[in-house]
Design a protein that fits this description.
This protein has 16 helices and 17 strands. It is of the alpha+beta class and 551 residues long.
């Protein structure tokens, strides 16, 4: 190993020798360049003296091989040139050396001549008549100087370089050959220089550690991919510049993106102002959140800054579908307001009647009327509370005991229960059709039939009919309740199943309706996975169909 290092040092010494020779050559080149410039100025002085004395005749008698003389007027027009016809040359007033000579009496420049296609030295002097005489010569190259003056040295240098190259190749081959055959996967299996043993041992330890770390990273990456891939929530990871590092399938579906969006700026997926502002605020403050609508649904965006080592590494964006939550909150607020209103109205009526009785202002003959009014409003309160309890039980969504039931038998039971109410309204209530066997919750199905028939009676006309029909079909059991009542205007048909919604509030108050009957019907149908449809024509009647799916 020591000999190899010695040979390397020898090679470096030869390289330094060559560098020194090149430096010396450069110095000599500069020296002979200065000599050339001095000779050129001397030649120009002689030519200037002859030109001032004899003019163009003197220049025409000169036979210059290495030099070129150009006589230029004070206005830059070429008067004579020893190489080219003066008429073929352009105005030289703009040449650097000519401008210097006109201004200072003498001028010089070195430039690349487009005419001679080589580097040329120019010297110029102003004559007594104001004209300028310029002399130029191609500057000798370093190669010429070396060839002419240092031929012996160059030969020696070439031999030394050739010998150094040969030695360096042999040395490099011997040193590099064992290193080129190193087995980096199994460092301890290599048989190389003893000096490399500590390095190989460290490499082997690092290889084992890296394999363990890579295995652990792959496991964590697979776990992360599994978790993120199965999340219903959208997950987007951004780097410090806002580019997408990772995006799970839920987020890709939300933004209508594909896997190719990784590495792109997040704003290319969604350029909405609220997202851009929230991203900036989260980068500055550490956290931000907002809600936005996308494809008709409501989403909650939570943005959290990622920090490591005191610097910002990126952002985590979690996207939650809160449509149901928002709808539930809105329904809860509306339900609370409606319940408060519905409870307050009969209570105020009861309190008013009771106060009149208590104060003695009610005549004895009017007492039954006031007591009947209190009883009626109290019964309305009880019915309202019962309906609210039923809806609350349905909202809880708990599993209720099911059994095989006949819709025809339940309908007949409801018909008997409502017989008095139908007679009071002079409405005919009939039940027809098949047995209609379904697997369901008896109480809910009874409530469904009861409320449909009760509404059909209340909102019917004198002498009207209510027909309940049950039919077994290939795809399930169809329940139809059709009346000849007042009907529902088209503008209200989509809302009649909402809680406390009434088409005719005055008629509902007279009939004692709570506004929850059809809402109970809707929830009971949903519990049994039944499809509910309504068909109504104002003034002609209403037909409500409940299609129970085949078990």
């Amino acid at each position: 190993m020591t000999n190899k290092i010695f040979r390397s040092i020898l090679s470096a010494s030869i390289a330094v020798l060559l560098a020194c020779l090149l430096l010396i050559t450069g110095v000599l080149y500069d020296y002979f360049g200065d000599v050339q410039e001095s000779e050129l100025r001397d030649e120009l002085a002689l030519a200037a003296a002859g030109t001032q004395a004899l003019g163009k005749d003197y220049l025409q008698q000169l036979h210059t091989g290495r030099y070129r003389l150009t006589w230029i007027g004070a206005d830059g027009v070429v008067l004579y040139d020893t190489k080219v016809e003066a008429a073929e040359l352009e105005n030289h007033a703009g040449r650097e050396e000519v401008q210097q000579a006109l201004a200072d009496g003498a001028g010089r420049s070195i430039r690349y001549s487009a005419t001679l296609t080589e580097k040329t030295l120019y010297e110029a002097v102003r004559l007594a008549d104001g004209s300028v005489l310029r002399i130029s010569r191609s500057r000798a190259t370093a190669a010429v100087l070396v060839t002419g003056m240092l031929r012996s040295v160059v030969v020696i240098v070439l031999l030394a370089v050739a010998l150094s190259v040969w030695l360096a190749r042999r040395m490099a081959g011997r040193v590099v050959e064992p290193l080129n055959t190193l087995n980096l996967e199994q460092p301890m299996e290599n048989d190389v220089y003893e000096e490399l043993s500590p390095l190989l041992r460290r490499m082997d330890a690092q290889q084992k550690e890296l394999r363990l770390q890579m295995k652990s990273l792959r496991q964590k990456q697979e776990e992360f991919d599994q978790i993120a891939g199965n999340m219903r929530e959208g997950l987007v990871l951004l780097d410090g510049k806002g580019r997408i590092v990772s995006i799970n399938p839920a987020a890709r579906a939300l933004f209508h993106a594909d896997g190719g969006c990784v590495g792109k700026d997040f704003l290319t997926l969604d350029r909405r102002q609220d997202i851009r502002l929230a991203t900036g605020r989260a980068m500055e403050d550490g956290y931000d959140a907002f809600r936005a609508q996308q494809d008709g649904r409501e989403y909650q965006f939570d943005l959290s800054r990622i920090e490591s080592g005191g610097s910002v590494r990126g952002l985590v964006i979690l996207i939650f579908d809160v449509t149901e939550q928002v709808s539930a909150e809105r329904n809860r607020r509306e339900f609370t307001a409606n319940v408060s209103h519905e409870l307050k109205t009969p209570l105020q009526s009861i309190i008013g009647s009771a106060e009149l009785i208590e104060s003695g202002l009610v005549k004895p003959q009017d007492m039954p009327r006031f007591i009947g009014h209190i009883h009626k409003e109290a019964a309305r309160l009880v019915a309202l509370i019962d309906d609210i309890i039923r809806l609350s039980q349905l909202d809880e969504g708990g599993e209720l005991p099911r059994e095989e039931l006949s819709l025809r038998a339940l309908a007949e039971e409801v018909s008997e229960t409502l017989a008095d109410a139908a007679g009071a309204q002079d409405v005919s209530l009939t039940v027809s059709g098949d047995a209609g066997m379904v697997n369901g919750v008896r109480r809910l199905l009874f409530e469904l039939l009861y409320n449909l028939c009760d509404n059909a009676i209340k909102y019917n006309v004198r002498g009207g009919t209510v027909a309940v029909d049950i039919r077994d079909a290939a795809d399930g059991t169809r329940l139809t309740v059709q009346d000849t009542g007042i009907g529902i205007p088209p503008a209200h048909q989509a809302k009649v199943f909402e809680r406390f919604y009434r088409v005719d509030k005055s008629h509902s108050k007279q009939s004692g309706g709570t506004g929850l009957g059809l809402s109970i019907v809707k929830h009971a149908a949903q519990y049994h996975h039944a499809k509910l449809t309504l068909d109504s024509v104002p003034g002609k009647g209403t037909c409500i169909t409940v299609m129970f799916p085949k078990q």
